[in-house]
Amino acid sequence: MLLLTALLSALLVTFSAAPAQAHDARPTPSCTGLNVNAWAYNGNAQNRVVVTIDGEQVASSTFGQSYNRDFSWSTTEDHTYRVQIFQGDGTQFNKSFTGTWTACEEPPATETGVTTEPTFQDVCGPEFDLAVPADTEAYRFTVADSTQGGQGDVVVTATLDDGFVWTGGSTEPRTWTFHATNEPCDVAVDVPAQPTLQDVCGPDYGEPTLPASEAYTWSVDDSALEDGAGTVTITATLDDGFVWTGGGTQPQSWTYDVTNEPCDVPTAVEGTPTVLEQCGPGYEVQLPVVTDADGYAFSVDESGVTAGQGTVVVTATLADGFTWQDGSTEPRTWSFDVTDEPCVTEDIPVPTATEICGPDGDAPYTIPADGEHYRYVVTDPGTYTDGERVVEVVVEFDEGYVAPETDETSWTFTFYDEPCDTPVAGLASADVTVTGATCWAPGTATPGETERASWTVSDVPAAGGTATFVAVAEEGAAFQAGLPGVSDDLTTRTFTLDVPAAGGELCTIAPPPVQPPTEITPPTTPQSAPPTLPRTGFDISSILAMGALLALAGATLVVRRVRSEA
User: Fold this and answer.
1) How many CB atoms lie within 10 A of CB 459?
2) Region labeled Disordered — which residues (predicted)?
3) What is the mean pLDDT of residues 98-106?
4) Do 234 and 254 form a contact (C-beta atoms < 8 A)?
5) Taking 90 as the threshold, does the pLDDT of residue 169 lie above it?
6) Residue 462, Cβ neighbours under 10 Å: how many?
7) 367: Cβ–Cβ under 8 A, 6 or more apart, which residues?
8) 454 or 277, which is more confident?
């Protein structure tokens, strides 16, 4: 039939029939291709041929006197063609041919298989579940249902489409026959929760926890274990008359991996880690001594500490093969809060102005030795400006250290470039004693012993309050510069003290405040210029006024430095 069709197609080819003459051409189709032939054209002209097959131009070239070429095509497909001849020396013999060709052979069949087969599930009662896959380009499904009242056969057939064969060459339809029953419905039960199986150390495993049920039976299969290691499978199988909720009766199984790991050795932390807080940004972590046999090791995490303040975390982590006494294996941790409270040094000694008079250029003051965690910094111009020489002394501390709360840490000494009048005979001193109040009587304040000085004012209130005492140095003597209440010219020292009042009832007498002992430093003077002091002639009223002013002087100590006249 295909061959007859091909012959008819050849007879239908359209071309210009004419007796043989010059400038002629003809396309000839066949089962395997198309022949294009042109002859008797002017060999000196640029003649041209264009061939198009199935809409695609396959040739466009020039020729001389003749042209002859075969173009192949598929024998199993239909084709169209067009041939154009363009005369190079005119248009009289231009030619155009179009035609079609019908496939002369059947295409080879494509092998296929059923990718997804139909499935059937007969559920209880008259219902059943049938799943038929979608048709494909190679085959299509049909269903023949002969059931009555939910009982009978259901036949599903897959039929090939043209051009396809089953894998292996068969073309017969494939069928699946399913039988439906009308069995009473089983009782639906839920799939049980997954049972638990605890793998314990050694070759054994723990007893599984299996939920009790009258609808299914449990089984434990440990046949896959070898030397205590492998898998254990636990299965729940439905008893007759039961079905899983949602359908299905297949057993439900769970698989567990078990090992033969050696049992861990129980251990416990011996001792307790501690962090000793230290003043300043420092602290000390103290850990109990451990060995490999203890089965754990300590680690210290200080990432939470910034500038000496924060939290230090100590962790005890188990080594492999060990467990805590309670069976747990999680690391044990301890947290310690640390602060950066500063350290307090010992009392800060007070610098003193040791030179009362003498030649210019020597050191008029004494600086105590530096402490372990502090040092004195002196700013001394070394010369006098407008008759004054101001010396500043401050205490600098190591990081994390401060002075006691009541100690001074800075002093200012002002020295004056003035002549001495009186030789210095020695250093004057005076003290005042204060006693506490009794149960019914107020406290007392009495002038104490003096050296090279005498008392000029003793003002003590009868019922307690503020007492004032003024001591005057003898001629040629002077009080030590820098002591509280010492005047600029070192000739007087004023004491302003609080005297305790009576309590009026039985009371516990607090220890009386004690005036700090005065360390007497003998004055030093260069041998080349005997020191002198201003004369001490003055009346009592001026001394009282000066004492009141000196009581308000604060921490700045003023020292008058005098220079011997030439």
Assistant:
1) 13
2) 515-534
3) 90
4) yes
5) no
6) 7
7) 351, 376, 378, 393
8) 454
Distances 561 to 101, 197, 397, 531 between C-alpha atoms, Å:
136, 97, 30, 10
The DSSP-derived string for 356-385 is SB--TTS--SB-PPP-SSEEEEEE--SS-B
CA distance 347 to 407: 7
Predicted confidence (pLDDT) at residue 297 exceeds the cutoff of 90: yes
- Rounded distance between C-alpha atoms, residue 210 and residue 501, angstroms: 89
SS3 for 501? coil
Which residue type does 315 have?
T
CA–CA separation, 262 and 230 (whole Å): 15
**In CATH terms, is domain 2-101 a member of 2.60.40?**
yes
Percent of the chain past pLDDT 90, that is, above it, reads: 28
- Predicted confidence at residue 198, as pLDDT, reads 79
Q: Which of 89-103, 156-170, 470-484, 503-517 has the lowest mean pLDDT?
A: 503-517
3-state DSSP call for residue 9?
helix
* Burial 275-296, CB ≥16 within 10 A → b, else e: beebbbbebeeebeebeeebbb
Six-digit token string for 134:
């979608």
Q: Kindly tell me the burial class for residue 198, based on how many C-beta atoms sit within 10 Å of its own C-beta (0-12, 13-18, 19 or more).
A: exposed
DSSP state of 7: H
- E strands of 222-330, at which residues? 230-238, 242-244, 252-258, 265-267, 274-277, 283-286, 296-301, 305-306, 309-318, 322-324
Give the separation between CA 370 and CA 554, rounded to whole angstroms: 24
Rounded Cα gap, residues 221 and 231, in angstroms = 9
Calpha distance 83→53 (Å, rounded): 9
| CA 132/CA 143 separation, integer angstroms | 8
Sign of CA dihedral 453, 459, 463, 465: negative
